[in-house]
């Protein structure tokens, strides 16, 4: 099979600070496209100067899935594969497309790693929005996901880095989630992210209510576990919530690490050592989004602190 043609596309709004970095990172693609959704900075002009094809559209009301679907629809028919790379994301290596070229045959969707280089507690997640140009579309007005046939090939060496601008105002996320949750009360993805957003904003009562509702209504075990760990972080009895999380998905490292840190804080060192040892035995990073404290230097530091005198 001949070498596939690849497009990198994204909707953007006021991403002037990132456009040149985005273009340089994506340079080995065959086609670059940005759909500007109403920027009042120099995003469109900068993008054009970088050789990016720029289109403009205004959505009223704005929905992220509509913007992504329009961006994908603007990709020329000559393109085989489309990657939606957000304006604040970059490929970790210049010649990233070699991983796709070598694994193009026989697949219509590929997964890869997304690493969080900014704030927050999450570190790495497996994402799969590298797809054939036809047969896929985005759904959900906020915290959107691409739907279609599942990924059949994981590109373990293809890494995209999320590098958010901490100065950018994201206060609109709560109002969007509240509005669309009211419109689509049966959309469990919106319910989960609304609870998470309330937690981010220290609205504990509302966060607990929505997250617990999600746990009782949803079927995705790993995300139900995530909701339980969020409740644990704002509840007076975190231990019981963390053990519920363990019971839901006992192969995931994160709840064991959280229990180890809790027990260490309470002076229950034997219990803390048991939990951190149990955590180390769990090495699957694909179950759900990883937390920084459970992987890499943060985990090793906690392990060595608790298991003094034992080699790593």
Structural commentary:
By secondary structure, this protein is of the alpha/beta class. The protein has two domains: 6-162, Spore Coat Polysaccharide Biosynthesis Protein SpsA, Chain A (Alpha-Beta Complex); 172-306, Serine Threonine Protein Phosphatase 5, Tetratricopeptide repeat (Alpha Horseshoe), CATH 1.25.40.10. The chain is 41% helix and 18% strand. It has twelve helices and ten strands. The strands form two sheets. It has an eight-stranded mixed sheet, sandwiched between helices. The chain has a two-stranded antiparallel sheet with strand order 8-9. Helix 6 runs antiparallel to helix 7. The longest helix is centred in the C-terminal third of the chain and has 14 residues, at 204-217. The radius of gyration is 21 Å and the shape is globular. The protein starts with 5 loop residues before the first strand and ends in a 6-residue tail after the last helix.
The appropriate CATH architecture of the largest domain is Alpha-Beta Complex
The number of distinct helices, counting runs of at least 4 residues, comes to 12
**Global structural class:** alpha/beta
User: Low-confidence stretches at least 5 residues in length (pLDDT < 50)?
Assistant: none
* Main sheet summary: 8 strands, mixed
Specify the CATH class of the largest domain.
Answer: Alpha Beta
Shape: globular
Radius of gyration, in angstroms, nearest whole number: 21 Å
Tell me the name of the CATH homologous superfamily of the largest domain: Spore Coat Polysaccharide Biosynthesis Protein SpsA, Chain A
N to C succession of SSEs:
EHEHEHEEHEEEEEHHHHHHHH
Total beta strands: 10
Amino- and carboxy-terminal Cα gap: 46 Å
The strand line-up of the biggest sheet is 3-2-1-4-7-6-10-5
């Amino acid at each position: 099979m001949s070498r596939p043609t690849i497009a990198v596309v994204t909707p953007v709004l006021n991403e002037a600070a990132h456009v040149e970095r985005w273009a340089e990172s994506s340079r080995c693609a065959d086609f670059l496209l940005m759909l500007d959704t109403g920027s009042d900075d120099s995003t469109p002009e900068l993008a054009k100067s970088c050789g990016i094809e720029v289109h403009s559209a205004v959505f009223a009301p704005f929905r992220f899935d509509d913007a992504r679907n329009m961006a994908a629809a603007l990709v020329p028919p000559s393109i085989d594969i489309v990657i939606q790379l957000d304006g604040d994301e970059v490929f970790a290596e210049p010649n990233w497309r070699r991983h796709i070229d070598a694994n193009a045959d026989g697949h219509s969707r590929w997964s890869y790693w997304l690493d969080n280089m900014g704030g927050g507690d999450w570190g790495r997640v497996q994402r799969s929005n590298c797809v054939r140009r036809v047969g896929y579309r985005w759904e959900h007005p906020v915290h959107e996901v691409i739907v279609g046939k599942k990924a059949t090939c994981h590109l373990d060496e293809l890494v995209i880095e999320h590098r958010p601008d901490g100065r950018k105002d994201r206060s609109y996320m709560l109002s969007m989630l509240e509005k669309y949750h009211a419109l689509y009360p049966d959309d469990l993805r919106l319910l989960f992210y609304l609870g998470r957003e309330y937690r981010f904003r220290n609205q504990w009562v509302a966060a607990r209510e929505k997250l617990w509702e999600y746990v009782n209504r949803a079927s995705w075990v790993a995300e139900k576990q995530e909701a339980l760990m969020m409740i644990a972080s704002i509840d007076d009895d975190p231990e019981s919530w963390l053990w519920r999380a363990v019971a839901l998905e006992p192969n995931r490292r994160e709840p064991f690490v959280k229990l180890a840190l809790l027990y260490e804080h309470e002076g229950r060192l034997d219990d803390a050592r048991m939990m951190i040892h149990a955590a180390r035995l769990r090495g699957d990073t694909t179950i759900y989004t990883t937390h920084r404290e459970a992987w890499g230097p943060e985990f090793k530091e906690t392990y060595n602190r608790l298991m003094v005198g034992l080699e790593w």
